[in-house]
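Holo prediction — flavin-adenine dinucleotide.
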Amino acid sequence: MLGSGLAVWLALIFSMKTTADILILGGGVIGLAIALELKLQGASVAVLCRQFEEAASQAAAGMLAPQAEGIPPGAMRELCIRSRDLYPEWIQKLESISGQTTDYWACGIMAPAYCQADFPHAVTQWQTATAIHQQQPNLSDEVIGGWWFPEDAQVDSRKLARSLWLAVQELGVTIDSGVTVQEIVRQADRVTHLRTSDGDYQAAHYILATGSWSQDLLPIPVVPRKGQMMAVRVPDPTQLPLQTVLFGSESYIVPRQDGRIVIGATSENVGFLPGNTPAGMQQLMRRATRLVPAIANYTIEEFWYGFRPATPDEWPLLGTSAYENLTLATGHYRNGILLTPITGQIIANWVLRQEADAVLNAFHWSRFTA
Ligand code: FAD
Ligand code: GLY
């Protein structure tokens, strides 16, 4: 007869799912990009994801905009620019594995202004009214000039998420979809296992990539910042009114090549309050039609919303945690789509070979503990 303690212990061990050496919590673009990189480097990896559709990754406009977003010089800007520069090659690799296009478009981003003070961070690249109206017809007469960021780009974030979802599975990563991680069970400085809606899971290493919901699992300062969005469609997709993303002072307008135009976004501190509101929609429509009056006559196609994972300093939490077998990759706030390739690369190199990228220190969670 086994001692009852040992029996319980064995029962626990045998009832645990051990699907892979590395378990990623969260199936948004961040979790999936890390899974992709780990798998390409030969690791055994699985993803647990509550719901693909609720991810911020599905709501995002998909701007790759380190310059247009006005990120001040420093580690965050450096990380964003490195990631933007990885995009073309990384997208090619991703699309060839998944067979699914992402509509990456190196279209540049224009920041039109109603007055010179509209954009505090840019010191160069000012375009006069004549130049900007010539480059991009259909702007409002109120636009007095603006800034042009030719290296910024865009991707269709829903297609990106789908492409990643397919690619990792193509490579043999298991995605357990519909599974909620309820608790990260810790003992001293280690994670012992995960308690989930589908029983217990165990792995050698865990990566937290649960975006806005990260605080449900760990006491880290990541909170939701809601963004409402809408899309219109131009009547004739062969006659696109916009050839570049417009990053206005009040709103942004992201034309896709198929004639859809994505308009964003509100920024609201309302927790996880769901739904689109008349006030949110009114704000988007008023601001977008002020910038491009023709939008008033296009067909409304869709309204939606999502939750940006925000940290107090608006920088992500990347790298080690208080637990030696738990790595953090969360809190990407307004730039998670942009930061997807670099996050995958940096986190995979850290987890597999303890290769610490020079910028990692700046993104360590302990900056909030002082
Ligand atoms: P998410 O995409 O939110 O994914 C988290 C996943 O974790 C979800 O699938 C969720 O179901 C799962 N999960 C959560 N909790 C659990 C749990 N307990 N158990 C199991 N699974 C769990 N970024 C840009 O770079 N450019 C943009 O133009 C841009 N526009 C945006 C516009 C809006 C309106 C919003 C909301 C965001 C925008 N962003 C943009 C930001 C970007 O979308 C996010 O930073 C990025 O998607 C974060 O990705 P993530 O994978 O960390 O989180
Ligand atoms: N980066 C755009 C947004 O978060 O709305």
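READOUT: The chain has two domains: 11-60+159-220+313-368, 109-149+223-310.
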